[in-house]
Amino acid sequence: MYAEDAVFDVSAVFTDVAPLRGHDAMRRYWTELRETWDGIDVEPVGGIDLGGGRFIIEIRLAGVGKRSGAAVGQPVAGLYTIRPEDDRIVQVQFLPDVAAARSVAEAAVDQPA
Protein backbone atom coordinates (compact mmCIF):
# COMPACT_ATOMS: atom_id res chain seq x y z
CA MET A 1 0.00 0.00 0.00
CA TYR A 2 2.96 2.34 0.59
CA ALA A 3 5.16 3.82 -2.12
CA GLU A 4 8.82 2.76 -1.97
CA ASP A 5 9.84 6.24 -0.79
CA ALA A 6 6.79 6.88 1.42
CA VAL A 7 7.15 8.97 4.58
CA PHE A 8 5.77 7.45 7.79
CA ASP A 9 5.70 10.08 10.54
CA VAL A 10 4.55 9.31 14.09
CA SER A 11 6.68 12.07 15.67
CA ALA A 12 3.67 14.15 16.78
CA VAL A 13 2.40 11.21 18.85
CA PHE A 14 5.64 9.40 19.75
CA THR A 15 8.13 12.23 20.12
CA ASP A 16 11.16 9.93 20.32
CA VAL A 17 10.58 8.58 16.79
CA ALA A 18 11.84 10.60 13.83
CA PRO A 19 9.93 10.47 10.54
CA LEU A 20 10.78 7.34 8.55
CA ARG A 21 11.22 7.05 4.79
CA GLY A 22 10.79 3.91 2.74
CA HIS A 23 9.77 0.30 3.19
CA ASP A 24 12.92 -0.83 5.01
CA ALA A 25 12.69 1.89 7.66
CA MET A 26 8.98 1.23 8.20
CA ARG A 27 9.57 -2.53 8.46
CA ARG A 28 12.31 -2.00 11.09
CA TYR A 29 10.01 0.27 13.09
CA TRP A 30 7.14 -2.26 13.16
CA THR A 31 9.57 -5.07 14.03
CA GLU A 32 10.83 -3.04 17.00
CA LEU A 33 7.25 -2.37 18.12
CA ARG A 34 6.44 -6.08 18.05
CA GLU A 35 9.54 -6.78 20.15
CA THR A 36 8.34 -4.30 22.80
CA TRP A 37 4.57 -4.76 22.72
CA ASP A 38 2.27 -7.79 22.79
CA GLY A 39 -0.88 -7.75 20.77
CA ILE A 40 -0.49 -4.42 19.04
CA ASP A 41 -3.96 -3.50 17.81
CA VAL A 42 -4.44 -0.77 15.22
CA GLU A 43 -8.20 -0.38 14.78
CA PRO A 44 -9.65 2.18 12.35
CA VAL A 45 -12.80 3.68 13.84
CA GLY A 46 -13.69 6.39 11.32
CA GLY A 47 -12.54 8.21 8.25
CA ILE A 48 -12.84 11.54 6.46
CA ASP A 49 -12.14 12.10 2.76
CA LEU A 50 -10.54 15.54 2.43
CA GLY A 51 -10.39 15.33 -1.36
CA GLY A 52 -7.32 15.48 -3.55
CA GLY A 53 -6.07 12.09 -2.37
CA ARG A 54 -5.97 13.09 1.30
CA PHE A 55 -7.75 11.26 4.09
CA ILE A 56 -7.95 11.32 7.85
CA ILE A 57 -8.36 7.94 9.50
CA GLU A 58 -9.29 7.92 13.17
CA ILE A 59 -7.47 5.01 14.81
CA ARG A 60 -7.50 3.34 18.20
CA LEU A 61 -4.05 2.01 19.17
CA ALA A 62 -3.70 -0.57 21.92
CA GLY A 63 -1.08 -2.94 23.23
CA VAL A 64 0.43 -4.59 26.29
CA GLY A 65 4.06 -4.00 27.27
CA LYS A 66 5.99 -7.28 27.13
CA ARG A 67 8.14 -6.46 30.17
CA SER A 68 5.72 -4.41 32.24
CA GLY A 69 2.46 -6.13 31.37
CA ALA A 70 0.88 -2.67 31.32
CA ALA A 71 -1.98 -2.24 28.90
CA VAL A 72 -2.11 1.03 27.01
CA GLY A 73 -4.47 2.46 24.48
CA GLN A 74 -4.95 5.78 22.85
CA PRO A 75 -6.81 7.32 19.95
CA VAL A 76 -4.78 8.88 17.15
CA ALA A 77 -5.54 10.22 13.69
CA GLY A 78 -3.59 9.37 10.56
CA LEU A 79 -3.39 12.02 7.84
CA TYR A 80 -2.80 10.04 4.65
CA THR A 81 -1.78 11.28 1.22
CA ILE A 82 -2.38 8.95 -1.71
CA ARG A 83 -0.59 9.22 -5.08
CA PRO A 84 -3.37 9.22 -7.71
CA GLU A 85 -1.42 7.47 -10.47
CA ASP A 86 -1.08 4.20 -8.57
CA ASP A 87 -3.14 4.68 -5.37
CA ARG A 88 -0.04 4.23 -3.20
CA ILE A 89 0.36 5.96 0.15
CA VAL A 90 3.14 8.54 -0.19
CA GLN A 91 2.83 10.04 3.27
CA VAL A 92 1.12 9.36 6.56
CA GLN A 93 1.40 11.56 9.60
CA PHE A 94 -0.02 10.37 12.90
CA LEU A 95 -1.43 13.13 15.09
CA PRO A 96 -3.07 13.16 18.52
CA ASP A 97 -6.63 13.51 17.22
CA VAL A 98 -8.83 14.35 14.24
CA ALA A 99 -8.83 18.08 15.05
CA ALA A 100 -5.02 18.17 14.93
CA ALA A 101 -5.02 16.22 11.66
CA ARG A 102 -7.53 18.66 10.12
CA SER A 103 -5.42 21.59 11.26
CA VAL A 104 -2.25 20.15 9.69
CA ALA A 105 -4.13 19.33 6.47
CA GLU A 106 -5.58 22.85 6.25
CA ALA A 107 -2.23 24.47 6.95
CA ALA A 108 -0.62 22.45 4.13
CA VAL A 109 -3.30 23.62 1.68
CA ASP A 110 -2.78 27.24 2.73
CA GLN A 111 1.01 27.15 2.18
CA PRO A 112 2.30 28.48 -1.13
CA ALA A 113 3.89 25.89 -3.44
Strand content: over 45%
Q: Could you give a short account of the major beta sheet?
A: 6 strands, mixed
Order of helices and strands: EEHEEEEH
CATH class: Alpha Beta
Portion of residues within helices: 10-25%
Number of helices: 2
Q: Which word captures the global form?
A: globular
Poorly predicted regions:
none
Report the mean per-residue pLDDT as an integer. 92
Number of domains: 1
- Structural class of the helix and strand makeup? alpha+beta
CATH topology: Nuclear Transport Factor 2, Chain: A
CATH architectural category: Roll
Separation of termini? Answer: 26 Å
Question: What radius of gyration results from the CA coordinates?
Answer: 15 Å
Strands in their spatial order, largest beta sheet? 2-1-6-5-4-3
Number of strands: 6
Q: Overview of this structure, please?
A:
By secondary structure, the chain is an alpha+beta fold. The protein has a single domain (2-110), classed as Nuclear Transport Factor 2, Chain: A, CATH 3.10.450. Helix content is 24%, strand content 51%. It contains two helices and six strands; from the N terminus they run E-E-H-E-E-E-E-H. The protein has helices at residues 23-36, 98-110; strands at residues 2-9, 20-21, 37-51, 54-65, 71-83, 88-95. The protein has a six-stranded mixed β-sheet with strand order 2-1-6-5-4-3, sandwiched between helices. A hairpin with a 5-residue loop joins strand 4 (54-65) and strand 5 (71-83). The longest helix is centred in the first third of the chain and has 14 residues, at 23-36. The radius of gyration is 15 Å and the shape is globular.
